[in-house]
Amino acid sequence: MLHQSIFESGSATAVSLPEVVGAFSYTLDVGAGLPAGHSVRSCWIGMHVGRAFCLSAEDLHDLYYVLLLSNSGFGQLHVSTRVAQGIAAINEHWDGSGEPGKLKGEAIPVTARVALLARTVDLAHGGSRTAAAVRDVKAKSGTWLDPRLAACFERVSRSGFMWAQLNGPFLDARVAMLAPDYESDPAAPDLLGDITVDLGRMLRAKGVDRDCVAAFRRAGITG
Predict the structure, then answer these.
(1) pTM (2 d.p.)
(2) Most buried in the list 32, 83, 123, 134, measured by CB within 10 Å?
């Protein structure tokens, strides 16, 4: 079985946690009714914005997992309190019109603010609409989106590299390379175990979308 192969001989060492989380995010996307690969693309965008915004190493660590696990609801996963708070606040808006807590401005965790921007960009971009994505961010700056992050994104968007790789065949691997140091993270083994359990539950309930299976195979997980 696909979920069992994560822990089969050699797999746990040959496949990194970022690769597994990235592949698992495809199942979360489809389960949330979003295009497969949405979270990985959002992670690519969001990490570029986070770095350009000069987030701390700790915030970048949290941002990486908030972006990839944003559709998890985090309830069944072992993640840090900061990551859980970021995921919980991902639909909060800068002007206080979001959900669930009507948080406003700086009261929203910065990881959630970056994640909302990145998700907005990916959905507006739709694979080829770069100008539309830039316009959407400008339109939502100061309402949905942190205006400073929106301005930072506008600067980052001028780089052709970010856009060129967004729909490239090696994006999963490139996103995994952006991952923070996970080997020193004490929660990593628990998170890996949680993903294995959740994936097994999904397989038993309704199977896994072919795009999700392809993502796991790209990560070196077969079954």
Answers:
(1) 0.85
(2) 83
